[in-house]
Amino acid sequence: MAKTKTSYRCTACQYTTAKWVGRCPECGEWGSVEEAAPVLAAVSNRPGATAARGAALVPNSPATPLSQVSATVSRAKSTGVPELDRVLGGGIVPGSVVLLAGEPGVGKSTLLLEVVHRWARRGPDDRSLYVTGEESAGQVRLRADRTGAVHDRVYLAAESDLATVFGHVEQVKPTLLIVDSVQTMLAADVEGVTGGVTQVRAITAALTTLAKTSGIPVLLIGHVTKDGAVAGPRALEHLVDVVLHFEGDKHSTLRMLRGVKNRFGSADEVGCFELHEDGIACVTDPSGLFLHHRDDTAPGTAVTVAMDGKRALLGEVQGLVVPTQNPSPRRAVSGMDAARVAMVLAVLAKHGGSRTYDKEVYAATVGGMKLTEPSADLALALALASAERDVALPAGLVVLGEVGLAGEVRRVTGVGRRLAEAARLGFTQALVPPDSGTHPAGMKVHEVATLREALRFVPRRKSADG
């Protein structure tokens, strides 16, 4: 005996409930719960009987022991772009689906156009198909001419219909497929508007099936919302194998590629690029972009090392303290958390003897770097103290440590890796918290337990009489 069960499913997060509700209790979306297809449940009076969703089908191929599955089929292949390979975990895996998301104008299309060009240069059997639904073929050709990405084995299709895209795949038989973007594709047999939740989910599922059955790796470009999240249903990120975020400031040429999800490697890697008029280039040593005073020092500057994923990046913190007659002195911050700068100023006043209540204070980073982790607290404190005293810190000094409200210097993670990167770039001294582990050979390391001890490395300004 069988009976029909009716269920309701959220189109945004796939949450299933037994009755209809106006708002999904899982993701909080309104009007996203729809009736799902009815399920036949087998009812039996026997003890221990379980429900079945339907009659069993004979599989086309039997299950294979894991030890007999070939690992060479899914070995990653280099894309020809080293920084992209770094984030992907060595390259792109055949049959995988990669979602690249980012704000408009950040350089997503330029990056993937460079990828298809270098992919086509690998050999005569490596053809790449670039499908664009946002631009015309002429616009893409103009960008390819400007960036030098024109190649005979790079095929271009200006299509937005999914069925037509599959037709191009059958004709070209590419070994790499780029879809720009998934929000502009349209499946004629699926209800919903272009870019809607239903359309995006169906198109991504179809392209994922194509990748898994044919072994063709697929790279999708995705839009982002004003909050920086990937536009579309949350299920979009669950369907794909890798999710990458391409970030950058419109006032800077630096672009950062971050891994958010990666089924084939670490999701903590970060790739660095520099966007030029003639294309995009990998930046293997990005620390040089964030340092201005490398060989000499100036008052109000301190160098620290930040961890961006697994990558150690040296950055320069600058401070400026200026006397003012304004009863409400200004506090301006760029590249750092304003609340954390205010906290460091308060700790300096309490435990360092600093007097900035009648002075304007400016704090910034160099090169558009964002310093949000607490390990930059001590460098910020020494930069502000150096600016107030108008004396420079010792040359070749790098500063690490979190500053507490009691004036203590707390330990930070990855000190060994941070100091190794600083030593590679020629820094010879370091201020670190106590018990920070091993240090690179040839670097003089000073352990400081309190902010007062660290301020001893900021020389006092000499008086006028010597």
SSE layout:
Layout lengths: L1 E4 L2 E3 L5 E2 L15 E3 L3 E4 L39 H7 L8 E6 L5 H13 L7 E5 L4 H11 L6 E4 L4 H11 L3 E5 L16 H18 L3 E5 L12 H5 L2 E7 L5 E9 L7 E7 L2 E4 L18 E8 L2 E13 L7 E4 L3 H14 L7 E7 L11 H13 L7 E3 L2 E2 L5 E2 L4 H10 L4 E4 L11 E4 L3 H4 L12
Parallel strand pairs: 6-10, 6-11, 7-8, 7-9, 9-10, 17-18, 19-22, 22-23
Antiparallel strand pairs: 1-5, 2-3, 2-4, 11-12, 12-13, 13-14, 15-16, 16-18, 20-21
Helix pairs in contact: 7-8
Can you describe this structure?
There is one protein chain. By secondary structure, the chain is an alpha/beta fold. It has 3 domains: 2-42; 77-284, Rossmann fold, CATH 3.40.50.300; 289-457, Ribosomal Protein S5, domain 2 (2-Layer Sandwich). It has helices at residues 82-88, 108-120, 137-147, 162-172, 197-214, 235-239, 338-351, 377-389, 415-424, 451-454; strands at residues 2-5, 8-10, 16-17, 33-35, 39-42, 97-102, 128-132, 154-157, 176-180, 218-222, 242-248, 254-262, 270-276, 279-282, 301-308, 311-323, 331-334, 359-365, 397-399, 402-403, 409-410, 429-432, 444-447. The chain has a 9-stranded mixed beta sheet with strand order 8-7-9-10-6-11-12-13-14, with helices on both faces. Strand 17, helix 7 and strand 18 (359-365) form a beta-alpha-beta unit. It is elongated. Residues 40-53 have low confidence and may be disordered. InterPro entries: AAA+_ATPase, DNA_repair_RadA, P-loop_NTPase, RecA_ATP-bd, Ribosomal_Su5_D2-typ_SF, Ribsml_uS5_D2-typ_fold_subgr, Rubredoxin_2. Residues 73-224 form the RecA family profile domain. Pfam families: AAA_25, ChlI, Zn_ribbon_LapB. Keywords: ATP-binding, DNA damage, DNA repair, DNA-binding, Hydrolase, Metal-binding, Nucleotide-binding, Stress response, Zinc, Zinc-finger.
